[in-house]
# Entry
Amino acid sequence: MKKSFITCVVFMMTTICAYAGGLLTNTNQHAAFNRMMSREASIGIDGVYYNPAGVAFMADGHHLAINWQLAYQTRDIENDYMLFTNNVNNAITPRTFKGKALAPVIPSFQYAYNKNRWSLQANFALTGGGGKCTFDNGLGSFEKIVAETAMGACQLAGGIDQVGAAVGQAMGLPIPSRFFSSDAAFGTDGKYSYDSYMHGRQYYFGLSVGAAYRVSDNFSAFAGVRGVYATCNYYGYVRDIKVGAMPLYQVLDPSKPNAANIELSCDQSGLGFTPILAVDYKTGKWNFAAKYEFKTRMRLKNKAVNYAPSIGNLADNLRTAYIQAGVPEAAADAILGNEHVTAAMGQLKSQFDQKLDAAIGEYEDGKKIAGDIPAYLTIGAGYKPIDALRINVGFHWFDDKHATSYNDRQKLLKRGTLEWNAGAEYDVCKKLTVSAGWQNTNYGISDEYMEDRSFVVSSNSVAGGAVVHLTDKMHLNVAYFHTFYQHKKVEEKVQLTADKSLSYSSDFTRNNNVFALGLDIDF
# Structure
């Protein structure tokens, strides 16, 4: 019982991670990226995000891009834990927990007005998040806690029964040696059942404005700022926990069937600003570009309505159960007043309160939580061997180690995220351009950082698509990319008792598909 509330933290920390990019950064902000992956050194309206300095080399006039993306992602976590075999409804280990994240509408808009050497630019996009992830059956960490709670409850019941039998013998009372540990109550095997669900939704809306200046025919520079508004919601529950034949609420508050339920609903919102600098240099058939986005300081304010059980009345409820079964009050008081039982109860409550504060503290109503977006560096090079063919390569670095998160969790990372990409596009004819690309994302994740409520794994993405040149001033981008994720396996040792430990292993992976359409207009 001492751990049952810890489940709540799982609900609150589950996030919708970026579909492409770093831990909390979406880099797929134009359909051109989805069809080519490497756009850091390209000259086009999508450069308002990828290469803002390079946009200054576009023709004078207005340039507008309107983009729509659909992303679908699954998250699979295979957990192997011997206690899962105590689940009376699904006694199988290893067990796979699947989450589904769907973002049917991911919009973005880029705009630039070029006049002489100046380029005034604006970009609106989802810089992070963009959908909802749902685990219909909760997570392995949910069940792990319920399973351990069931085992702990049985051990506690057995300890109380042992004292009860000794008191009964001393007082000449027929107190059963298996009262709370009988098959009609908690039992001795740690059998359990429960109902669980969770979902998380996260949107980081970004609006950037800035200006680029063409210093010479070969060199341009850009400065701008992005405002980021975050809005998130997390909801989940663990309900109807039963240990053996005993509904857990009956020993917490028998008058309330929901007394052992955990239900959380938390909204978070926050505002941050990102300064941006960029440069672009052209020479012959080559183009080189770089961009640096400073760290975005984000503080998310909670607005929460949370419900959690309390074990403060556990001893009184156990005493009442004895009396209702015909045990004299004096005997019940003697059992629950035993120094070993009292010490166990005190330790139970102390540990429960500490875990409660650690879990719910981050999501208390009105509290502000650190959730920085990391600084971000991009470098790109483009080469045009012939007029119809353009080849790009690029590099990204996300400074995740210095983006503050709650309890400085970022310190568990080995390093920031590194990305490499390459892409090419070819003009088949005047009306059609085809393209393809690849990107490798390598996260600096340690085993300690991995948790099923919010995880990422390194990956390779491949992309393909085309541009249909509808007119000289209207161009339709059609694109698709798929991400092949690696597996990340971790294992921990769970010390159930002083002389018994078990292994809890996790195998994390994902699957990701993104479709995109975009219309570029010059006028």
The mean pLDDT is 89.
